[in-house]
Structures are given as C-alpha cells and as structure tokens.
Amino acid sequence: MAEYSATGLGRAYAGEAAMADNASAQWRNPAMLTYLEGMQISTGAIYVNPNIDVNGQVSHQALGSTSASANDFANDAIIPNLYISHRYSDKLAVGFALGTNYGMETNLGTDFAASHFGNEASITTMEANLNLAYKLNDEVSVGGGVRYVMGEGSFGATAPSKNALNLSKGTTLKYMEGDDTSWGWQVGTAWQINDAHRLGFAYKSEVMMDFEGYAKGLTFGNHKPGKLAIALPATAEIASFHQLSEQLAIHASINWTDWSSFKELNAQFNDGSSDLIKSENWEDNYRFALGTTYQLDSKLALRSGIAYDMSAVSDKNRTATIPETDRTWLSLGATYQATKALTLDAGFTYIIAKDAPINEPRDASDQTAAAIGGAFNGEVSGDVWLIGLQANYTF
To answer: Which of 95, 138, 183, 387 has the fewest CB atoms within 10 Å distance of its CB?
Structure first.
C-alpha cells in the first residue's frame, strides 16, 4: 500500500525519500522535514478502484468439474491522510502524520465454486506518526519517528454448492477476525550533494500485529476466542532527485519490502490450541520507479511517472483471496499554486496487473479444503485506478 499522497501519486511515487514538496514528505522520509519552511498542513484522500477477476475450474474425483469465477471482487476504498510540519529553527523540524501503509479487502462471495479455499480476506490499518528531523550541516539531514498502528483483519472460507460433506452452500468452514494496536519506528537521512542533486534513504520497522478476536466454523463452533499474529513488514527505500534545468527535474527510487515475514495465518486460541488457517509463504519484493516534474509556469507544475512493482508471491503460492501479482504503474499529476500559501494537487494512476495462475491446493494447509470441494486451477487478471486530491497550506 503506497497511496499516501496525491502529490506523489502523480509521479508513481518515484523518488519519494528524496522529495520535499509539502508536509506529506515526512511519511516516506522524516529527514525531509528539514527542507520545509514554516508551518505546513497537507490533507487529502485517494480513491482506489481495483477491478480484479478470477476464472478457472474446480475438479473433484467424486463431484466432477465445475466452472469457478468471480468478477470485480476486490473492494473499492477511499484512503484519507493528514500531515503537519513545523520548522522550529534552521536545523530542527517536527512533524505529525496520519495515513496508512497496508490495506486490502477481497470478497469472492458464496457463489464462488472454490470458496472452500477462501472467499474473503482483509487487512486494514491506520497509523499515526510523530517525527523529528535535524540538519547536521548544509549537506546532511537525519530524521526519525515513532509509529502507532491500528489495524483489523479477517479471513473466511465457506462450503461451495458442490461439496463432499453435503453442506449447504455458504456454510462457514473457517472464519476468523480480530483487531490490535502496536508500535513501530522509522528513520531516514538525506544528502544534498549540490543544489541540483539529492539522495535520500529511509527505513520503516516491522510491526507485529496480534489481531485478537474469535474464530467460528465447523471445527471452531460459533465463537472461539483467540488471536491471529501477522507481521506488517519492514520497508526500505533509496531515492534520488535531480534538477536538470530550471523547469525539468527527474526522480527515481528503489523500494524493498520484507514480505518474507508473511509466512502463514496461524490462529492461537485462548484454550491453548492452535490452527493453521492458511499458509502464505510470501517473498521479499522490490519496486522500481522513475518520475519527472515539469514547471510549466509560475503556477502550474506537471508530473508523470512509471513504476514496476514485483509480486511478493510465486506462482506456486498465489491464492484467490490475496491474488498478488506483478504490476506496472502509469501516472500523471499536477500542482496548482492557487495563492502564495495554498497549493492544490491532483494525481491519477492506472495500474496494469499481470495475468497470473492460481492453483490450489498448494501445500498441506489446503488439503482438507481440497478434500471437501476439490482442486482449483485458474487465472487472475485485472487493473486498478487511483485518483487523488490534496490541499497544502503554508503558514
């Protein structure tokens, strides 16, 4: 989840750890607070419209074959944000931020013929940051902050219309939900090589979430208290900014996310028992982005960007509930200087998701589901539209 500002959205979030457009800069690199003048407030929202489809077939030795498909099963979302920065002196700056780093929600419905492997999943988070930055000298700035993360998650699987247990369609096989709050941290640095060139580096810590709640289903009963531990991964970014002329700048970045920490959904219950809800076996992923900014005149700046976001899931481990795949970002944006103190940002992105196979069962965690409803072989395809608006005010 990268959707933290409309400013960055317009350049496909290229070079973010080296950018200092407004107060939102602290979200990706707290050291950039030292580049902001006075007191600034930035606020806005991004509308996320995913269009994801899955098509395939379920096969069971005793039940035969059934077509399995679901269209547009990833939910839309509006992601708000708020950022405040204050420059105390030439060297010291502080900031406060509200936004999100992680979130997704899918619902394939009870009509999906492979719902026994999973028909719904969600993780939603919001977090508050308190950041501090210090300018060591004319070239180097450092920053850091504390993160307070609030989140909730769920996973569910239901019986399809054809199943070996003769259950009614939609009967809950497994369902668990919970919520939690936790703490993390972030650090960053910026190196101003000269007036035209800058490098930035930032790191966010892993945040362990123990989603406390309950499970229900065939083996759990109606309400079995427990928790589901999920590690929100550490991330790192190296970025650069280059002012090539008075009007034109380019920026680039490489992002790493420690998704290999997401191994499984393993429920721990209050009675001491546990259950492997589903293995995931994700891998670290990388994102490469290149963007441009063109100052058309004194009031209007134009942006564009392209990015390639590698999948954190191999073809072997992809699931219908979290159909992670490679993505290409194509972005456009602009900033309009409405007054001396007020700027307005708009960003637009079209994400092309690579078609990818899904084959379940993948491992031992899926075998019981396969015995109930059969094996699923299919393909996921789709795209995502992002539209963002933001207002920035300097006091």
So the answer is: 138
**Coil, strand or helix: which one is 90?**
coil
Evaluate whether 286 touches 233 at the Cβ level (below 8 Å): no
For residues 63 and 327, what is the distance between their CA atoms, to the nearest angstrom? 36
pLDDT digits (tens, 9 = 90+) for 266-312: 999 999 999 988 899 999 999 999 999 999 999 999 999 999 999 99
Name every residue whose Cβ is closer than 8 Å to that of residue 105 and which is 6 or more positions away in sequence: 74, 75, 77, 121, 122, 123, 124
Phi, psi of 267 (to 5 degrees): -85, 135
Cα 59 to the chain's mean position, in Å? 33
* 302 vs 293: CA distance, rounded Å: 6
Distances (CA, A) of 267 to 50, 154, 264: 29, 11, 9
- Smallest CA-to-CA distance from 46 within 391, 376, 395, 386 is with 386
**Torsion angle, alpha carbons of 338, 339, 342, 346, to 10:** 10
Contact 190, 32 (CB under 8 A): yes
Which pLDDT band, with edges at 50, 70 and 90, does 58 fall under? Answer: very high
- Token pair of 339, please? 């007054």
DSSP string, 312-365: SS-TTT--SSS----EEEEEEEEEEE-SSSEEEEEEEEEEEEEEEEEEE--SGG
Sign of CA dihedral 317, 264, 153, 82: negative
The two tokens of residue 364 are 């031992």
Report DSSP state, residue 271.
Answer: T
Shortest CA distance to 323 belongs to which of 381, 367, 283?
381
The strand pairing partners of 7, in sequence order, are none
